[in-house]
Amino acid sequence: MKIALDARLLDTVNNTGISRYIEFLLKYYSCRYRSEDISIISNDKKFTYCNCQVIYTDLKPYNIVHFFLFYFKIRNLKPLLYHAPFYSALAFKSKIRTVVTVHDLMYRIVPNFFSKNFIVNKLKIMYFDFIVRLSLKSADEIVSVSQTTSNDVFNFLKRNSFTIPENSEINVTSDDRILKKFNLVKKSFFLYCGNSRPHKNLNILYKVFETKKDLPLLVMAGKGHRAGTNTLNVGTVSDHELKSLYESAIAFVFPSFYEGFGLPVLESFYSRTIVVASKIPAFLEFESDNIIFFDPDNIEELHIALKDAQRRKFIDNDFLDKFNDKNLIAKYDELLAKI
User: Fold this and answer.
1) Domains recognised in the chain with CATH numbers
2) I need a surface site. Which of 13, 149, 230, 298 has the fewest CB within 10 A?
């Protein structure tokens, strides 16, 4: 069985959530099929993986001209199965069995996702809708990474999808030098790591840590964050440093208005760290004693949740078992058996 796996969004430097998912799929398919039967499509001329054939292309997933040209490139490869780990896949239905994974439909749901200019934002939504609609309509199976995303896909296209969660454990040793660099003491600070887009709702974090004098320091990792009277911006960190920050934090704070899943929740739990998260559908799917919820519009609720986190200890249980690779592999086996 010839497999084509789309790895054009694999970023081995920044190791994004989609990159980690693509790495999981690479491992999955290479364990299930012979290397010579797997073709990996990449935008990186230097990329290699085991003994699999890597096919370079300069066609980008979200360039609309490239989107149509990419269909013919895949058709010429003649795989029996093509898997797109993101929602830009094939423009047309074909004999190729196609699986498309959707992580979220955030661009349709978050207000002003692309721009505060109404016309610009609307045009960009229409642009992405065109690509995503064709990609999902041409798919034989759609994978959604959460029930929330599955519901969003159904509301968009009235198509059911196969829900398979992601897994995200940072399997590296901790580099505690970052603690010394910024004079941080273990279990004496809260942590946020991620981007600063509006849907991340970071203003409520700045406000609560600047106005509530009984809270310890908030450490913020990532690009675009501002430092304040009780917030420390450590910038972009390595996986080794991030692991140390997760393990050393009182809790990870996740105040988003919308997410399709929530990889940092799992990363925190693997580090035996509590999570303080907004009460949104994707996060409510994490039914764990180690997560404290709050209304993302209510600063007082957030303050109470943060104080609660300071008193709590992480509770060891089997919650993470359903996200481990063994269970996810079984779900993908079930999916592929259908097609």
Assistant:
1) 3-167+324-338 (3.40.50.2000), 177-320 (3.40.50.2000)
2) 13
